[in-house]
Specification:
The protein has 581 residues and is of the alpha+beta class. It is built from 20 helices and 17 strands. It folds into 4 domains: 190 residues, Gyrase A, domain 2, CATH 3.30.1360; 132 residues, Gyrase A, domain 2; 112 residues, Alpha Horseshoe (Serine Threonine Protein Phosphatase 5, Tetratricopeptide repeat), CATH 1.25.40.10; 89 residues, Tetratricopeptide repeat domain (Serine Threonine Protein Phosphatase 5, Tetratricopeptide repeat).
């Protein structure tokens, strides 16, 4: 029987993984940016220091050499780049870079040892918050690479995920200090309920749920990048030349590759005695539909799922087939990857904040040096969103009501440092200073608060006026474009661009009923134009005709899937989800 690993528990609690199988490659030198810009698929010039991007190296036929995460690092003395990739990809990356490095003033080498600890999951920021001494360090958590201090030792952190949740690789700057630093990290992780060193099978199930592709399983060096759909996150088509660009452009201009990776969610009532092997053929009514790559049981979805390489006619999201494989016929629905998408940290932070306020409303004010449940929740909310102003303010108020004025003042002063224009920060400081008997300081803060209130009122009035002006200018521009399309239609009623243009302009002007006939005409002329389906769906939604909207969006989804128009497809799927829910 297939083992049903509990990924739902893993996602609820998070993980600490010691020594994941990853490699770190450093690229530095005067020409490092220019060299990487010419060799990799993404726009390295646009990458800001402290952040990362998904990137790739291709051969001249646009087949995948390696996909990796690229980080840009800048300190006081120099600037450099780091690549983090699966260990199995390191030699191929270095070989490729070396073969194309001629007169460039650039150095690249694999950093060894690279022996990080990975923490990942909804509590990963909270673990980091437990490790740092100063709350101000939490502001770094929104960067992709940064440093913190732990017991006098510097740690370098890289944002990285192996299961689709927020995660951080933690590496001591001095590699010899890892054993002494690992213990407090493990203790903090254990205290927050993280699962320590979970089994490989569980991690692989979580990886598949998150749609994270494994080299050698889901794709390899014979895979065209568009077949993986990684070109959506790894490629900048506007940046200039790089190896494989011409082939990518041709594939893009011709629509979609003949086969590409997608997801399948199998009927929850189906039972498989043995999981299908890699590259097991999928058939539909005897016709080859694709090949299974990664397969697992998802406890999160309560179903068997697969990442599969699907032929063009069998990868429409939302469509179900009776798939034949392993001597069985099992119903499965095709879906866009990923199967699971983690809620953003800010969303979880807002939920904690709302829970804290709800609990506080039921509590009586008490003086205590111990944090109450609402206080703990607010501190967690701040750890997840270090610039969450309402959480700081509420925490300060709760601390003051518990008689912990000095702590309340420290929290609100930090809020004022984050946002010097915060009216409530200065208002609360005025109140707290008065309670402390510091009348002069209280009056000073009150004066600042009054001034900021006046400035905020004036700013709001200006912004409202500017917004109204911008809206009117946009409306006038749309009317001008509408007039231009009407002129063309006066000459040729069969012109596609004029029909589509007039229809989309009418949707923008909220003249939904008028837009319908022009968008339908556009689709008669050009039935594969996915944006026309999207706009016609919006027109039906605006006119209140849900049934027609669902029908036309479903048609548009099928067309977009066949053509590989992933951006319109995601927009269409988003509207369908809203309508169906």
């Amino acid at each position: 029987m297939i083992t049903k690993t509990d990924t739902a528990l893993l996602r609820e609690r998070g993980i600490l993984l010691d020594s994941p199988a990853l490699a770190l490659i450093e690229i530095k030198g005067q020409d490092a940016e220019r060299f990487l810009q010419s060799q990799t698929t993404n726009n390295v010039v646009a990458l800001k220091a402290g952040f990362c991007q998904q990137n790739a190296l291709l051969d001249r036929k646009a087949k995948t050499v390696a996909v990796f995460t690229l980080y840009r690092i800048k300190d006081e003395e120099s600037e450099s780049f780091r690549i983090i990739a699966a260990s199995a990809l390191a030699s191929g990356i270095l070989k490729h870079l070396d073969s194309f490095c001629f007169a460039d003033r650039v150095e690249f080498n694999q950093v060894e040892p690279f022996d990080p600890v990975l923490i990942e999951g909804p509590h990963s920021r909270l673990v980091l918050g437990d490790l740092i001494e100063e709350i101000s360090q939490a502001s770094s958590f929104d960067q992709d690479v940064f440093r913190i201090d732990l017991d006098g030792e510097a740690l370098e952190l890289f944002r990285y995920s192996i299961m689709g949740d927020e995660g951080f690789l933690i590496e001591p700057i001095h590699s010899g200090s890892k054993p002494s630093l690992l213990e407090p990290i493990r203790k903090a992780a254990e205290a927050r309920g993280l699962i320590l060193d979970p089994p490989e099978e569980m991690l692989d199930s979580a990886r598949i749920e998150a749609g994270i592709l494994a080299f050698g399983t889901d794709y390899d060096t014979d895979s065209l990048l568009p077949e993986t759909n990684l070109d959506q996150s790894c490629v900048s088509y506007e940046k200039g030349c790089f190896q494989g660009q011409e082939v990518l452009a041709r594939v893009r201009s011709h629509g979609a590759p003949t086969k590409a990776l997608g997801g399948i969610v199998f009927d929850s009532g189906a039972t498989l005695k043995v999981p299908p092997a890699l590259n097991t053929e999928l058939k539909v009514e005897g016709e080859l539909a694709g090949w299974i790559k990664s397969f697992t049981h998802s406890s999160f979805l309560n179903a068997d799922i697969a990442i599969a390489l699907l032929k063009r006619d069998f990868r429409e999201p939302g469509k179900s087939y009776d798939f034949e494989f392993g001597g069985q016929k099992i119903k499965g629905e095709v879906v866009l990857l990923p199967f699971y998408k983690a809620p953003p940290a800010r969303s979880r932070s807002r939920d904690l904040y709302e829970e804290a306020l709800s609990l506080f409303a039921k509590e009586e004010d008490i003086e205590s040096n111990e944090d109450t449940k609402p206080m703990k929740l607010l501190k967690e909310a701040i750890a997840l969103s270090p610039d969450f102003e309402d959480a700081y303010e509420s925490l300060g108020v709760l601390l003051s009501r518990s008689g912990r004025l000095d702590e309340a003042i420290d929290v609100i002063k930090h809020l004022a440092a984050i946002n010097p224009d915060s009216i409530m920060a200065h208002t609360n400081l005025s109140v707290f200073y008065m309670e402390k008997g510091w009348k002069e300081k209280a009056e000073e803060e009150k004066a600042i608060s009054t001034t900021l209130s006046m400035l905020a009122f004036n700013k709001a009035a200006r912004e409202k006026e500017a917004l109204a002006k911008e809206k009117e200018e946009k409306r006038k521009e749309t009317i001008e474009r509408l007039s231009m399309f009407e002129e063309v239609l006066g000459i040729d009623t069969e012109d596609f661009l004029a029909n589509y243009g007039k229809g989309s302009c009418l949707v923008e002007l909220e003249r939904y009923s008028e837009a319908e006939s022009y968008l339908k005409k556009a689709l008669e002329i050009k039935p594969n134009h996915t944006r026309a389906y999207l706009d016609l769906g919006r027109a039906y939604i605006g006119a209140g005709d849900k049934e027609k909207a669902l029908a036309v969006l479903a048609d548009g989804s099928a067309v977009a899937a066949r053509q590989g128009d992933l951006m319109p497809l995601k927009d269409i799927q988003g509207l369908l989800h809203e309508l169906e829910s």
